C-alpha cells in the first residue's frame, strides 16, 4: 500500500519542483500525490498528469482539515505571509493542528538553518513552527533550507550594471544551495517512507564570503563587480530607495547581519545523505542561469 503525500504551496516555485522530483526522479505514482494550494485552478497541468489537486487555504483551519483527510505524509512548505508579523506562524500552527485532527502520520516542514540562533527577521516563525510540529507528537522531518543560490538572481543583474554590490556581510561566510536541489532532497525524504523523526540542514559544499561570490559572478558574467561595504542602516536605506517594501528591506538587512555574525557559517552533508548526490556549486548555477544573471534580454543559458 503506497503512502499518500500531500504538498502544500504546490503552485509555488519550491512546491512545483518537489512534485516534479517525486514523479520524475523518485517514481512516485501521480495518483499518490496530492497538490494543494489556495487556487487549485493553477494546478491544471499537474491534474492532467494524474496528481490529485485540492484547495488548501492556511487562513481556513476547517478547510485545511478537509484538505488533509486521508493523507499519510504532509509537506508544509512555509508560506509567504511575511508582511504581517506573526501571521505565518499562526498559519503554520493551524496546519499542524489540522494535520493532527486529520490523522496525518508524518509531517515534513521547510525551515531555515539554526532558527534558534538567528538575526533573520523571520527566524522566530520557523522556530515556532518546528516547536509546534514537535509538540503535536506526529513523526516529523524538518528540512532546514539554506539561502538559495536563486536569491542572488534578484539583485545581481542590477549590481552588475553598476559594477557595485552593496553588502553588510563583512567577512561573514555563507553556504548557499539551489532551490531545485532543496526540492530534490525534500522529495527524497518524502519518498523514502522513513518513519523516524529527524532534522536536516541543506547547504552547499563550500562557504563563501560576498567578495568570493562577487568574483564568481564577475567571472561568469564577464563584467567587473566590486563589493562595497555598508552598514545595516545604509543597506536598508538603499533597498527602500529601490522601491522595495519595508519588511523586505528589514529581512534582507537581517540576512546580511546574520551572515556577518557568522550565523550562516554552516556546512552539512545532509543533502548528500538524502540524495546520494553532490549539491550544485554556485558557479555552475550561475553558468546555468547566465541569461538571468546578466539580464541582457537574450533567452540563452536555460
From TrEMBL:
It is an enzyme of class 1 (oxidoreductase). Residues 2-245 form the NmrA-like domain. Keywords: Oxidoreductase. CDD domains: TMR_SDR_a. InterPro entries: NAD(P)-bd_dom_sf, NmrA-like, NmrA-type_oxidoreductase. One of its GO terms (molecular function) is NAD(P)H dehydrogenase (quinone) activity. Its EC number is 1.6.5.2. The keyword Oxidoreductase applies. It comes from the Bacteria. Pfam families: NmrA. PANTHER family: NMRA-LIKE DOMAIN-CONTAINING PROTEIN, QUINONE OXIDOREDUCTASE 2. This is NAD(P)H dehydrogenase (Quinone). It comes from Rhizobium leguminosarum.
Amino acid at each position: 500500500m503506497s503512502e499518500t503525500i500531500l504538498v502544500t504551496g504546490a503552485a509555488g516555485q519550491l512546491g512545483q519542483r518537489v512534485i516534479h522530483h517525486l514523479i520524475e526522479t523518485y517514481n512516485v505514482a501521480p495518483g499518490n500525490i496530492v497538490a494543494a494550494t489556495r487556487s487549485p485552478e493553477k494546478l491544471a497541468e499537474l491534474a492532467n498528469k494524474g496528481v490529485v489537486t485540492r484547495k488548501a487555504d492556511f487562513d481556513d483551519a476547517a478547510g485545511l482539515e478537509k484538505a488533509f483527510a486521508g493523507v499519510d505524509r504532509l509537506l508544509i512548505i512555509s508560506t509567504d505571509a511575511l508582511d504581517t508579523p506573526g501571521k505565518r506562524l499562526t498559519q503554520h500552527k493551524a496546519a499542524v493542528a489540522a494535520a493532527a485532527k486529520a490523522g496525518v502520520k508524518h509531517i515534513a516542514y521547510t525551515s531555515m538553518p539554526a532558527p534558534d540562533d538567528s538575526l533573520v527577521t523571520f527566524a522566530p516563525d520557523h522556530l515556532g513552527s518546528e516547536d509546534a510540529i514537535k509538540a503535536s507528537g506526529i513523526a516529523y522531518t524538518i528540512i532546514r533550507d539554506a539561502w538559495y543560490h536563486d536569491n542572488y538572481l534578484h539583485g545581481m543583474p542590477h549590481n552588475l550594471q553598476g559594477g557595485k554590490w552593496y553588502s553588510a556581510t563583512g567577512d561573514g561566510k555563507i553556504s548557499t544551495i539551489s532551490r531545485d536541489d532543496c526540492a530534490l532532497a525534500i522529495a527524497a525524504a518524502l519518498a523514502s517512507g522513513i518513519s523516524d523523526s529527524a532534522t536536516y540542514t541543506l547547504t552547499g559544499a563550500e562557504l563563501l564570503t560576498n567578495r568570493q561570490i562577487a568574483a564568481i559572478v564577475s567571472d561568469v558574467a564577464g563584467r567587473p563587480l566590486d563589493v562595497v561595504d555598508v552598514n545595516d542602516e545604509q543597506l536598508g536605506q538603499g533597498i527602500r530607495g529601490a522601491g522595495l517594501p519595508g519588511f523586505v528591506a528589514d529581512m534582507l538587512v537581517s540576512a546580511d547581519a546574520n551572515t556577518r555574525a557568522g550565523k550562516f557559517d554552516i556546512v552539512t552533508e545532509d543533502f548528500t545523505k538524502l540524495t546520494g548526490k553532490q549539491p550544485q556549486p554556485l558557479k555552475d548555477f550561475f553558468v546555468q542561469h547566465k541569461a538571468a544573471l546578466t539580464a541582457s534580454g537574450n533567452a540563452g543559458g536555460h
